[in-house]
């Protein structure tokens, strides 16, 4: 995108733009909120785990990231140049564990790390799609993998729909919080 | 991401002790249906989100919202930005 390259050249030659002039109050942000994702080692992917990971990635794509990554990177760079830093409130992480490779969304709360295994998922549709047995197997495996990769993290499943008591109990037995966001 | 993602916050930025939402729109404004309504709703969502239990980032009493876009917005969009005290950056 030649126009963006041109903009960057002009941007770098300019004084900090109007954004830096805005005096406002704001809350404290701790360093824990910008912790980077640690790399963990594990066994190679099983075919099944690879299929599931690919399936998830495809589903996330359907959720609609309508901007090209290059543009987002450009925006990010522009704001970093002005002194703004992105807080990775939701940061996707891919890690390999003995349970296979997992891809999760991670969030950061003050003082404690939270791992979000599903963000904004329709739990009822997910249950219907997988069937109860496969649902429990899939998420049991995923929770075990998250526990291995992020042993200190509180694990949360964020759903847009209410779950049945059996599913609530299932997650509860693993110590996983189920948060419904409508 | 864009204004058509109704309930997603694109980025949360920090600069020293200031916190800001960064909304991103790359399309031409005249090609976005009901862009003014979508923008207004998204700004409201950002403001409400910052006060909600859903937010895992601590926000101060006032937050900044910044709209980054590729095309200069029309007057109706500019008036919304002014009314909602949203900063604009055309890149």
Structure description:
Chain A has one domain (2-180). Chain A is 42% helix and 22% strand. Chain A has 6 helices and 6 strands; from the N terminus they run αααββββααβαβ. The longest helix of chain A is centred in the last third of the chain and has 18 residues, at 132-149. Chain A starts with a helix and ends with a strand. Chain B is α/β, with parallel strands linked by helices and 91 residues long. Chain B has 2 helices and 4 strands, in the order ββαβαβ. Chain B has a 4-stranded mixed sheet with strand order 1-2-3-4, with helices on one face. In chain B, helix 1 (35-51) runs parallel beside helix 2. The A-B interface holds A 4, 7, 11, 17-20, 22, 24-29, 33-34, 64-68, 71-72, 74-76, 78-79, 82-87, 89, 107-110, 114, 120, 181 and B 1-2, 4-5, 7, 9, 11-20, 22, 24, 26, 54, 56-64, 66, 68, 70, 87, 89, 91.
What is the count of helical runs of chain B?
2
N-to-C CA distance of chain A: 38 Å
**Looking across the biggest beta sheet of chain A, what order are the strands in?**
2-3-4-5-6
Separation of termini of chain B? 16 Å
**pLDDT averaged residue by residue of chain A:** 66
**Element string of chain A (H = helix, E = strand):** HHHEEEEHHEHE
Total number of domains of chain A = 1
Characterize the overall form of chain A: elongated
* Cross-sheet strand order for the largest sheet of chain B: 1-2-3-4
Q: Helicity of chain B, in percent?
A: 25-40%
Q: What is the H/E order of chain B?
A: EEHEHE
Strand segment count of chain A = 6
Rg from Cα of chain B? 13 Å
Give the structural class of chain B. alpha/beta
Give the chain pair forming the largest contact, with residue counts. A-B, 42 and 35 residues
**Tally of DSSP helical segments of chain A:** 6
Helix content of chain A: 40-55%
Name the structural class of chain A: alpha/beta
């Amino acid at each position: 995108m030649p126009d963006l390259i041109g903009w960057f050249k002009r941007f770098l030659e300019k004084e900090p733009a109007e954004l830096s002039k805005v005096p406002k109050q704001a809350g404290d942000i701790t360093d824990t909120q910008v912790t980077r994702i640690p790399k963990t080692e594990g066994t190679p992917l099983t075919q099944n785990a690879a299929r599931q990971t690919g399936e998830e990635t495809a589903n996330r794509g359907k959720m609609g990231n309508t901007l090209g990554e290059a543009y987002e990177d450009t925006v990010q760079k522009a704001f970093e140049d002005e002194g703004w830093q992105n807080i990775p409130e939701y940061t996707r992480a891919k890690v390999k564990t003995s349970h296979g490779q997992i891809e999760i969304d991670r969030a950061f709360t003050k003082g404690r790390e939270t791992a979000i295994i599903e963000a904004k998922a329709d739990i009822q549709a997910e249950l219907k799609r997988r069937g109860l047995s496969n649902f429990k197997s899939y998420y049991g495996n995923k929770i075990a993998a998250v526990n291995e990769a992020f042993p200190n993290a509180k694990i949360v499943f964020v759903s847009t729909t209410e779950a049945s008591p059996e599913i609530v109990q299932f997650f509860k037995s693993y110590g996983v919080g189920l948060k419904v966001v409508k | 991401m864009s204004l058509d993602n109704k309930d997603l916050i694109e980025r949360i930025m920090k600069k020293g002790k200031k916190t800001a939402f960064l909304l991103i729109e790359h399309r031409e404004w005249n090609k976005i249906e009901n862009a003014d309504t979508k923008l207004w709703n998204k700004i409201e969502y950002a403001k409400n989100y910052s006060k909600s239990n859903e937010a895992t980032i601590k926000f101060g009493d006032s937050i900044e919202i910044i709209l980054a876009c590729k095309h200069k917005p029309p007057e109706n969009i500019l008036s919304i930005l002014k009314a909602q005290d949203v900063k604009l950056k055309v890149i």
